[in-house]
Design goal:
This protein is mainly alpha-helical and about 675 residues long. Among the domains are: about 125-185 and about 195-265, no CATH class; about 270-345; about 590-673, no CATH class. About 65% of the residues lie in helices and about 0% in strands. The protein is built from 33 helices and no strands. The protein has helices at about 1-35, 50-55, 80-105, 135-140, 145-160, 165-180, 185-205, 225-230, 235-250, 255-265, 270-280, 290-305, 310-325, 330-340, 350-360, 365-380, 395-405, 410-420, 430-445, 450-460, 470-480, 490-500, 505-515, 520-540, 550-565, 570-575, 580, 585-600, 605-615, 620-630, 635-645, 655-660, 660-670. Helix 9 runs parallel beside helix 11 (about 270-280), helix 24 (about 520-540) runs antiparallel to helix 25 (about 550-565) and helix 25 packs antiparallel against helix 26 (about 570-575). The protein is elongated and about 115 Å long.
Length: about 675
């Protein structure tokens, strides 16, 4: 019985020896390769890394509304107006909820969030210190209460207590940032920013450069900031820099440069943010192009002398100021870009946007297009992050260049850059988003075939873009050129849903295309239904604020479409209403109804058409009457009536025929079977 145990022990010893040999060999190999092994550092993942990874697996749904809205039919906008109203309503609701939470924190003391989310808890926005002290002043400055801070500062001075230099500088920061006014609500700030961006887009749409946009001046003379600055017993660099930046921010450019002179006289040096502000204000203090550019160069030399290192915002400020000067400083703009590369500062989207603005010249689209092509070639495959508030203007401005240059390949390359990484986040707010996609859709309509246009249309609408009336007009022109009229009923439903049914030229364009030629019976029936829908839009506008002007061409086309669909009685009612609407039918409308009456064998409508032509004194009345006599089997009374109308339809008897219209129509109605 001991033999198996001995054998087992021998096997174990043998295995142990083999393991020791392997360990010695691996240790020798590890020691030999220890110099080649680079152990990576521990990777720290973001808390939302898993969510970001999942987000990249979800593709865009072109049939869904914007992700900013809830998936509820009542909360999904159908028009661009609804989009703006719903967006503002959502922001207003957030601000109202934030106001209630911060104003009444005692109602939200229970924290049920796990884990704790500090941003969802109420902020302490009510002052807790009631005494007149420097601590109370610091508290009110932190709460951004401008008037209360100034009043408390004056009370301290009247009581013989001078606040410290640090506290006074904080108060100056508050006053210079808000321009000596109370902070506006966040919803009003969003509305103001949206209006400013819309104003800039409108200026660009009218081919006006940004140098024509007037600068808002809100810096008042002898305001509290200047008064407190003059009362300070001592000042430091922060004091002067704060005043300079505040003056530039609120449009007091001459005072800012005067303050900069005082800073130099007191042997202080400015920081990089101060020089950035002065560079932005440089074009506003000079009149000649040479003097404006010279002042910018002088400020850059001062930065070198004072050993102030420039940053990205410095070069963007230079390019933004050169953009205000105009295309005469193209060489200086390119030198600025080369200097950025020499210092290793990566350009942002705002850098490229300002470059495009510098190269803007009415009538010279080639230089901008060439520059944009070089920019896109350099930025291909890059994922940008927000570094400058003006970054959001690049894509809409670049698409404007593509549209004006009619360069479709350049537009596609720009769109590929937008879809690279998270660059879509830098598309901007609603005005920039609509401007970008509107210009993209317009250039696609101009340069692509109908199939590609429809592909882009279904991809962009309504998830990313609500077409304007001009956008729909461009789409209809593409359908006309490619002879894809069968899609018009579907496009009309979108026009009505998106809210452009109140555009007269758009309604007439739809009717003209549908009435341009005869198609199969199924499509003519769909055209007739669309015509009735358009007719209801005209009728409903009579009781609305925006009344559509009824035209003979529009209602004539409606009558033609109904006739081609075999709905002759409805067409005749529309044509008969021309008298009450004071409209004159075109000859082709009466001819079309006459052909329809012939196909239906309706002689009563044919006679009525002749009477209608006589009442309007149409020059083709004799030919119309003769056609009815030849093509229809009439009663003797109807034949006599037509002969009388034919003989009395000359120019001299037009008034008499018009006066006898009622009696003639009554005799015709009596013969209607």
């Amino acid at each position: 019985m001991a033999l198996p145990c001995v054998r087992l022990g021998a096997v174990q010893l043998r295995a142990a020896s083999i393991l020791r040999a392997l360990c010695r060999r691996s240790s020798h190999q590890a020691a030999a390769a220890s110099e080649d092994i680079d152990i990576p550092r521990r990777k720290t993942w973001d808390k939302t890394a898993v969510l970001q990874a999942l987000a990249y697996t979800v593709n865009h749904d072109p049939t869904a509304s914007s992700y900013t809205f809830q998936d509820d039919p009542y909360l999904i906008p159908n028009t661009s107006t609804d989009f703006k109203m719903f967006s503002m309503s959502k922001e207003s609701g957030k601000n109202a909820a934030r106001y209630i939470v911060n104003m009444y924190p005692n109602l939200f003391q229970k924290d049920i969030a796990d884990p704790h989310i500090p941003c969802l808890m109420p902020d302490n926005i009510q002052p807790q210190i009631e005494s007149v002290s420097e601590e109370a002043l610091n508290e009110r400055i932190k709460l951004r209460r401008v008037k209360e801070s100034v009043d408390l500062f004056d009370q301290l001075l009247q009581g013989g207590t001078t606040p410290s230099l640090e506290t006074t500088n904080k108060l100056l920061d508050l006053l210079c940032f808000y321009g000596d006014r109370e902070p506006i609500a966040e919803d009003q700030q969003h509305q103001q920013e949206d209006s400013e961006s819309y104003f800039q887009e409108n200026m660009k749409r009218r081919n006006l450069p940004l140098k024509h946009i007037p600068a808002a001046k809100t810096w008042k003379e002898n305001n509290n900031a200047e008064r407190i600055f003059n009362l300070m017993p001592e000042r430091n660099t922060h004091t002067y820099c704060t005043m300079i930046r505040g003056m530039v921010k609120h449009g007091a450019y001459a005072q800012a440069f005067s303050m900069y002179t005082d800073l130099l006289n007191n042997r202080f040096t400015g920081d990089v943010h101060t020089f950035n502000a002065l560079i932005l204000g440089a074009p506003e203090t000079k009149t000649e192009v040479k003097d404006k550019a010279g002042l910018i160069v002088e400020l850059l030399n001062h930065m070198v002398q004072q050993k102030v290192s420039p940053n990205l915002m410095t070069f963007n400020s230079v390019l933004k100021s050169l953009r205000k000067i105009g295309p005469a400083v193209k060489g200086m703009a390119m030198q600025t870009l080369m200097e950025m590369k020499a210092l290793g500062i990566e350009p942002s989207l705002a850098t490229y946007n300002h470059l495009l603005g510098v190269f803007y010249k009415p009538g010279d689209l080639l230089s901008q297009a060439q520059l944009l092509s070089s920019v896109l070639e350099q930025a291909r495959g890059q994922s940008f992050t927000a570094k400058d508030p003006d970054d959001m203007f690049f894509f809409s401005e670049a698409m404007r260049v593509c549209l004006e240059a009619k360069d479709l390949d350049l537009a596609y390359e720009l769109h590929n850059l937008l879809n690279t990484g998270d660059n879509w986040r830098l598309l901007g707010k609603t005005p920039q988003v609509f401007a970008y996609y509107g210009r993209l859709f317009q250039i696609v309509c101009m340069m692509e075939n109908a199939d590609m246009v429809l592909k882009w249309y279904r991809e962009l609408v309504p998830s990313r873009y609500y077409p304007t009336s001009r956008g729909f007009q461009n789409l209809l022109q593409v359908l006309e050129m490619e002879n894809r009229l069968e899609l018009i009923p579907e496009i009309w439903k979108d026009i009505k849903q998106i809210g452009h049914a109140n555009k007269e030229y758009l309604l007439e364009e739809v009717l003209n295309l549908m009435a341009s030629g005869k198609l199969n019976a199924e499509l003519q029936a769909a055209f007739a239904d669309t015509a009735i829908s358009i007719k209801s839009v005209y009728e409903s506008s009579e009781n609305s604020k925006i009344q559509l002007k009824e035209s003979s061409s529009a209602f004539g086309n409606i009558a033609i479409l109904l006739t081609r669909a075999g709905r002759l009685d409805e067409a005749w009612k529309i044509l008969k209403s021309f008298q009450s609407k004071r409209l004159v039918p075109r000859p082709n409308v009466i001819k079309e109804l006459l052909d329809g009456a012939k196909a239906a064998g309706n002689r009563a409508v044919a006679v009525d058409l002749v009477q209608l032509a006589v009442s309007f004194s149409l020059p083709d009345t004799p030919q119309i009457a003769q056609q009815v006599l030849n093509d229809f089997t009439l009663t003797e009374e109807q034949r006599i009536t037509l002969q009388d109308l034919t003989q009395g339809s000359g120019p001299s008897s037009s008034s008499s025929s018009s006066s006898n219209n009622n009696s003639t129509s009554s005799s015709s109605d009596s013969d209607r079977d």
